[in-house]
Amino acid sequence: MNARLTARDWLRERRKVITILQPGSDAPPNGDQLAPTSGHRVLRRRLTRVRRAPRKFRRPPLTLLSLSEAEPGSSRPPWLVDPEITHTPIWLSRLPSSFEGLKIVHLTDIHHSLFTPLEEVERVVHLANRLEPDIVALTGDYVTFSHAYIRPAARALGKLRARCGVYAVLGNHDFQVDPDQITQALRGHHIRVLRNAHHPLRVENKTLWLVGVDDLWWNSDDLSGALRAVPAREPKILLCHNPLGIWEASSHEIDLVLSGHTHGGQVRLPGIRSWYRSKLGERFVEGWNQLHKTQIYVSRGIGKVVVPIRVSCPAEIAVLRLRRARTPARQ
Q1: CATH code for the domain in which residue 160 is found
Q2: Are residues 11 and 150 in the same domain?
Q3: What is the CB neighbour count within 10 angstroms for residue 70?
């Protein structure tokens, strides 16, 4: 047989191959068998490639990776007890109407250490943010004993969010560790640290002054200097770690003092209300009180010192709502 096929022979052979390749057909018409020549095999392979359905594009299996980790503190470790969230209205006679209802979340005595692990600090920050505060007031003692806790504590507290800002003062434990390094760490996370200084909050041409002083135990407080250039008749809130500061605050007609330091006693044993003894008496160990025209709120705080427990004295996140009143009234 001639190796070179004519055009007519090629078409005839092509029809036979197509007939064979049709579904359900085992033989060409009229029972003819197609001779298995090498030319036919090549032609069959070509036609098979032509008639093969195109393969759909297949992507490799896609593994979805979450780019956002769970927010620290959003889930409570099973060993951790959440702090108590308390709500207290504060009636101020000089409060401008534009500040009516201002919400302050007061956190104090964080004491990040072996007794107060970072997970506990992050949990407190998460709970505070859920309260959607206008102001967060931090009144000192962020770490205990070691420099190693400064940066983690500042990083966790730097996640606090408040509409009008986060403000802080230092406590006696901060001075014991390193006040300047703690100040730098907090400011590095956009927390305004008031070191014998003040800051105005202005709404509708009215001003509410935030004033902060350093720790009394270290004789580093200077309330007169902090109040310099602050109008005497305008309302003022003082952040002062030690509640003993209310004595001087009342002489400067401070409207409200926010303090910590006492831990609310931390351990309350039967028959003994608190192991903390204040020169001002039991009434300035925790909660709201008043000296002359100056009101004070002392929070029980978050952390623990001396012993790693609290007994009948839970940690506290204090929520204070400012209200306008003609005269300060006992809560």
Answers
A1: 3.60.21.10
A2: no
A3: 8
